[in-house]
Design a protein that fits this description.
Low-confidence stretches: 210-245, 247-265
Helix content: 55-70%
Shape: globular
Strand content: 5-15%
Radius of gyration: 21 Å
Number of helices: 7
Number of strands: 3
Order of helices and strands: HHHHHHHEEE
Number of domains: 1
Largest sheet: 3 strands, antiparallel
Length: 265
């Protein structure tokens, strides 16, 4: 095997790393307006999941996939991000109030603060990967994120541990090297972290089906998850079997390759 074989492991790894760096630069650039962070995260996870699943890039151009995912998910991902931002503001205000309390009450409320942060982060890990991979409403995406965090708790904890470890090593362990790590995060840190997390996220997705997440049905509180084709990959559509008993006959959730029966007049 030649060292510089285009299909060899070395060149494949270098190609993936180049895609990670390029996606990271685009992510940082697109996050600058702040309110676009949600759409940028969705586009980033779209590309990183694409690399993890080893799916073909659009004409081999990862930046085109990033831009298309950013545009396609902008509206709903922005709504999701604004909701998360409100929760973050609430947690910051809660911490500001709690730290001013002294004695036993202060310690008890500080424990509740850390529990709230933990619960929030567990669901936050899955919000934008779900938005990147599946078609769903804002409400159902949020609910699926926390349901998935519980159903795949080991993978959730590993993904969360990876995030905490990256932050600790970069900004807490060695304060003198913070400037260096800031440059590393700006160059490849965000995308590299998302890429590594996507291996755990893929395992979590498998809780609802095979690796391709196709033809799965999971019930929770009367909810049904149905996969159909979307964006040339996978779609998870959640419908209530109680509110609409004919959900599996509806044309809007029938895959493009699935033959549809003609309605009788």
């Amino acid at each position: 095997m030649k060292l510089f074989d285009p299909d060899g492991p070395l060149m494949t790894a270098m190609s993936k790393f180049a895609d990670i760096v390029l996606c990271n630069l685009m992510f940082v650039l697109f996050c600058l307006p702040i309110f676009t962070i949600g759409a940028s995260l969705t586009a980033l996870y779209t590309c990183m999941l694409q690399l993890v699943y080893e799916e073909d890039k659009d004409n081999g151009l990862i930046f085109r996939d990033f831009w298309q995912a950013f545009r396609r998910n902008f509206k709903q991902a922005t709504v999701l991000w604004l909701i998360c931002l409100l929760v973050i503001v609430f947690l910051a205000a809660y911490y500001w109030v709690v730290q001013s309390l002294a004695g036993a009450y202060g310690k008890v409320y500080m424990v509740t603060f850390y529990l709230l942060v933990f619960v929030f982060l567990c669901g936050f890990i899955y919000i934008f990967p779900l938005q990147a991979r599946y078609e769903n409403t804002v409400r159902n995406t949020l609910r699926n994120a926390w349901l998935l965090s519980i159903a795949a708790l080991p993978w959730t904890l590993l993904s969360l541990l990876l995030f905490v470890a990256a932050v600790y090593v970069s900004f807490v362990m060695n304060p003198a090297a913070v400037d260096t790590f800031v440059y590393l995060w700006a160059a490849c840190g965000f995308a590299l972290l998302a890429y590594l997390q996507c291996f755990f996220i893929r395992k979590a997705f498998q809780k609802f089906g095979n690796e391709a997440l196709s033809q799965k049905t999971v019930q929770s509180d009367g909810a049904v998850f149905i996969d159909e084709e979307h964006r040339d990959r996978d779609v998870m559509v959640q419908e209530s079997s109680y509110s609409d008993p004919n959900w599996n006959r509806r044309e809007d959730i029938v895959g493009p390759d699935k033959p549809q029966k003609k309605r009788r007049r």
